[in-house]
Amino acid sequence: MISGVVGLFRGRPVHPVGPDGRMALSDHLRELRGRVLKVALVVSLAFIIGLFYFPQLFEFVSGPYVDARQALPADQRTLITTNGAGGGLMLHLKLAGFVAVLGTAPFWLYQIWAFVMPGLHANERRWSYIFLATGIPLFFGGVLLGYLTLPTGLRVLLGLNPDDVTNIVEFGDYLQFYTRTLLVFGLAFEIPVFVVLLNRAGIVSGRTLSRYRPWVIIGIFIFAAAATPSTDPFTMCFMAFPMWFLFEISVVIARVNDRRRDRQRPGAGLSVDEASKL
Prior knowledge:
Blueprint: H1 2-8, H2 25-52, H3 54-61, H4 63-71, E1 77-81, H5 87-103, H6 105-116, H7 122-158, E2 166-170, H8 171-188, H9 191-200, H10 206-211, H11 213-227, H12 233-263
Parallel strand pairs: 1-2
């Protein structure tokens, strides 16, 4: 069993390729099983490590709530709690599981990509490298910005309670709110990747994006207003302005790609009265 587990993490291909350059369906399924086992082992190990470092993880995750609570006026009270006799146990399991899945994201995302990559053409593989190299940093950059702006959003939301009302926050609900906020910020920063992908597929052109720029900007601010956890304009702008900036970068990339694509056409550079060599 130990040798089998060690074999999962060897760098060699899981199954041989046939003379025609293809693998049988059973080989694909076995390779998928091997990668799923790898992910399960790594996530389980990270989960166990998360249980050992629970105090540090709890301090990090609850940090935005603590900062928001300290910024509230003295007459506004809030408490974070757990429910039931097993509330403490569920708190440990939820937090360790959340950190395990998020912390091992680069590993299991790589396993997904490595399973799909053999079916891609050389050009598609090159663009997949580019999208991975840009998409992953953008996602985690959005997550970081969401974490930094979360105390402001929580302070506004907690401050809406009347002075004589104590706001009780159940940690499970807070963790769900925390996860959703960071995920929304991370996905919002993927806009240029999706726009460039649509442009590469020929679905949308840089000229079309420029024509509809005012409506896109309005849509960005509406999305930011609906996605941010608080009702204050500052948190909304923290999301909207980076999204706007990234959209403008994607428009520039799309227009450059359109010009390159036009130059590669057979009739590029010919006037309407000039006969083509074809």
